[in-house]
Amino acid sequence: MNNIRSTLKAVWRIALPYFNSEDKWAGRGLLAAVIALELGYVAITVLVNRWNSDFFNALQERDLSSFTYLLGYFAVLATMSVVVQVYQLYLNQWLRIRWRRWLTEHYLTGWLANANHYRMQLQGETADNPDQRIEEDAQLFVDQTLALGVGLLSSVVTIGSFMVILWGLSAAAPLHLFGIDLNIPGYLIWAALIYAIVGTLLTHLIGWPLVGLNFRQQRFEADFRFNLVRTRENGEQIALLKGEPAEHQRLSARFGLVVRNYLDLMNRTKKLTAFTGSYNQAAVLFPYIMIGPAYFAGKVQLGSVTQTSSAFSSVQEAMSFFVTAYRTLAEWQSVVARLDGFEQAIANGQALVTKPDIIHTAASADGAIALSDLTVALPNGAPLLQTAGFSFRKGERTLLTGPSGAGKSTLFRAIAGIWPFGKGEVALPADASLMMLPQRPYFPVGTLQDAIAYPGQHDAFDAAAMTEAITAVGLPALAGRLDEDAHWNRMLSLGEQQRLGVARALLHRPDYLFLDEATASLDEPSEAALYQLIEARLPDTTVISIGHRGTLHAFHQRNVTLEKTGESFALTEATSAATN
Residue 16: CB partners within 8 Å, gap ≥ 6? Predict the structure, then answer.
């Protein structure tokens, strides 16, 4: 019961925001229409049940006129049933896609906004495989919540509607055993109820492990898919290292988890299917067993027998909703748990930037980037880099050096506002644009225009400007391929990617440009040419570089190094470099 309550609370938290969103009236209207059509279908089922009695009575009495009338009446009911089912499905699907679209946008916003996806990774990413949760789990949640919710409502209404019929039939056809009529009020209802309760309890006893098995199956499938993608993305490195056997072994081990859990899922599903199949087959005969003696005793007509069977089956099926939907319920519960965990991870990432003991950003009055009493820490809280006060002055080109692991790249992340661990303040010039160029730049899959203009739109720059920038950074062979669609991170060498990264900077013309070993894969003459290009094309841009080559000093006016002081590193002003 605790699991049921927690699941229902999670469902409420996940589902309610959509029906209070900007799309709430469309969502509420579609939901009301779906429910109304479902209730209409139940009403038609009740009318068909009554038709069933009259039709078979007409057959038994050989009443041709009633038989002919009832055929026409059934045609009307059948037409109404088809129309209701068609539009109920159509509106249900319409509601599903609108709800899923909103939920997907909601999760994308929470995951991507303000670098929250990065903070979630830094915290250990308690919600693994966010791609699966946004794409697959969101769809399953919407589809299964609607199916189970509407199905449960239909079952409740069906029980209420047919209980009246069964109560009357129980009085008209009392339980007949061994030649004796036993007047048990509503005995057909009690029989259906007992049958459903016994079936539900046995189903739960057999099927409850499916919840955990479904949860693990989805996780193992997502992990296997993620590792396949990683292997594809890093094909060159794997091939150079001749790592195919190791990759094969690693991927086979991941898939082994999928297979082992699936076998457990198969065995448990086999047991549950065997029981539910037997249960449903027995349900066909059960109402005839209950009312058959009264029929053979001449207490009721054939029409009453068929009506009883139909009504009993409807009530029994409605009462057995839990039995028939158990596997879906088990999968749905695991989907709810995954989405609830994902929402909690998003909330934890968002809450991280509101804590008082983190690195805060403020506005700088003099146009410089000022670090005040700054401590950059690791996620476990250990201090990595400390400075009482330091400024990257506007217009200067600064080279940042130091041993590996000193926190140079992490300092850049703190300045960019995506590394919250630590304390102190980073003051940034108001309305200044910052661009970070890492050692391995990111290019979205798409046209070369999209890749270079990122994160802007491809139409932010004209084709001539893009062609000129690509040529200027030493990639004239790519200048005529702006409309080509490709996976550029995979197609180009790291050196070519770094050149394109500089081309991106030339187009965007940021106020502050941070180069985190952004030219380290180029030879020294090519690196020097790119720095000269940046100086010529971006004379007003403040450049801050991380690098290890001594030749970089010639392209910077200021040299700052990170030196070990106790348990952490500190920024130290070195001898000024030659001014270009």
Answer: none
